[in-house]
Amino acid sequence: MFDASADQLAACSYAVSYHLRWRFGGEALGVDETLAMRAHVAIGDQLAALAETTAHRTVFLSGGRGRLLLEAVSTYVTMRDLESHQSVEERARLAILCDLLVDLRDLSISLGETGGWPDQPLCAA
């Protein structure tokens, strides 16, 4: 469980959406990949619904979803932060997500969901 602003929720939702396209797009999926994709879709749907309220909200993640959200946000920041030109909207989204990465990692650790994440810098910003 963690508290997030509407902007943070929207940025996380966008990152999950990006991660879905990147990880699961363009290939046939087996059973394990399909289940992982469905879990990411559920997280994205939850975040998008909360972001629509434009208020500070509490997000409840269970069943390994903290780790999945961390994976999606980390992937988004890693892949998008390297591009030389970004719109103002993209730079703002990256800043929000970079700020959230440490908190999401701490959340995942507290839930015992790390799954062996290496101890590495989470954001180049």
Topology:
Blueprint: E1 2-4, H1 6-24, H2 31-51, E2 57-59, H3 65-80, H4 88-110
Helix pairs in contact: 1-2, 1-3, 1-4, 3-4
Structure description:
The chain has helices at 6-24, 31-51, 65-80, 88-110; strands at residues 2-4, 57-59. Helix 1 (6-24) runs antiparallel to helix 2 (31-51), helix 1 (6-24) packs across helix 3 and helix 1 (6-24) packs across helix 4 (88-110). The protein has one domain. The chain is globular and about 35 Å long. It has 125 residues and is mainly alpha-helical. Helix content is 63%, strand content 5%. Strands 1-2 form a two-stranded antiparallel ribbon.
Q: What count of structural domains?
A: 1
- Uncertain residue segments: 114-125
Helix-strand sequence: EHHEHH
Strand segment tally:
2
Calculate Rg over CA atoms: 14 Å
Question: What percent of the residues sit in helical stretches (DSSP H or I)?
Answer: 55-70%
- Report the sheet with the most strands, covering strand number, pairing sense and barrel closure: 2 strands, antiparallel
Q: Residue-averaged pLDDT, rounded? A: 81
Straight-line N-to-C gap: 26 Å
The largest sheet has its strands arranged as 1-2
Beta-strand content:
under 5%
In short:
The chain has helices at 6-24, 31-51, 65-80, 88-110; strands at residues 2-4, 57-59. The protein has 125 residues and is mainly α. The protein has a two-stranded antiparallel sheet.
